[in-house]
Design a protein that fits this description.
The protein is α+β, with helices and mostly antiparallel strands. It contains 7 helices and 17 strands. The radius of gyration is 20 Å and the shape is globular.
Length: 314
Amino acid sequence: MPTPTAYFEKRFVPLSEAKIGVMTHAFNYGTAVFEGVRGNWNEARGELYLFKLPEHVRRIRQSAKIMRLAISLDEDEMVELISDLVRRNGYREDVYVRPIVYKSSEQIGLRIHNLDDDFLVYVAPFGAYLDPDAGVRCMTSSWRRIDDTMIPARAKVTGLYVNNALAKTEAQLAGFDEAILLNADGHVSEGSGENIVLLRDGRLVSPPPQDNILEGITLDTALQIAGEELGLEVERRTVDRSELYIADEIFMTGTAAHVTPVTEVDRLPIGDGRPGEMSVELQRRYFAAITGELPRYRDWLTPIYSGAAVGAQS
């Protein structure tokens, strides 16, 4: 097995040597942005597929722009560098790739201008984040989702995720699997690390970006598959808390969570309290897509070991 490797300070180094100083601005003030990119292992093909890598690169660049972070590489260079790093690590299992753009200056002071910026990436094995088979039990958190006028909600800013961590911890200490955050207006926003989708009367409903959700890549993917494969209509609109309780089904989407059914909210069962039929079928098709088993969606995937374009594979 190759030595775990990271990209740090513009070179590939052993992961154990990729260290920042205690005075690093991003460490002290949360002045960094990040992405999570899934690599999904297909045992039969002997291939690791990175899911929608260009889209994740595009989103971290958008987050960086909002936070006044400069990236010296262009999009294509970032895609190639990340692919190269994953290949160097040689994992034959599901992985999680974490690119970070951060304020690297070792300076004390509350600002995001006149500071140095840097880019790092690391890779780690990563299995199921939430239970995809049993589904998850959720509670509505007492913590409210951050507003875009406080910290940019559509940017994956490291400091912002204190909000999510507080909600997740509250839920787990109360005996639940996951939290659902409402926004400042009291409307459903998202989970601690997932977008939320309801099934009501044969139609999928999901909160819109203006309710301070992260503009989810997995969310858009799941909704596309639901429309093209299952023939479901999609509505993006504000959702009230009580609407969660009467949904026919609920599922969560995210890079870590994939597509995960919700079986309970605030101790009220969703449907019959088991993963819903539509959610399970959508989950099945999503997993088939991200592991290269659905030919029509292979252009979403970056193969790591074959060196060939995905569309050229059988």
